[in-house]
Amino acid sequence: MAYDPKSLQRVFETAAPPDMELMFKPMFGGIMAYADGKAFASLSSVGLALKLSGDDYTGLLAVPGARPLQYTPDMPPSKSYVVVPEALLADHDALRPWIVRGAANLKPAKPRKARAR
After folding, report:
1. What is the pLDDT of residues 41-50, one digit of tens each?
2. Highest CATH level, class, for 5-104
């Protein structure tokens, strides 16, 4: 099934906690979702994929219908992005904790080095 990234963005915005500051940018025919300036979700024709690690990655993969992100069949499966199953897209209350976990997995920004003048 091919998804419409704009429709997935509406699902994502509705399911995300109201106090979460999100930003969306077009990328490679899809849309990337950002929290704190860092990408943590891919919205594409493949579906909504969340960037997760460790137990969160394994936990979402255990949900029936979830799978590692692959934009094309010849690409290796992602080791950090998991495509959210259809059932979670339809259940915003069930999707919300996964969005929160994705944002929580973001590493803090590295301090920028001052430029020499």
Report:
1. 999 999 999 9
2. alpha beta
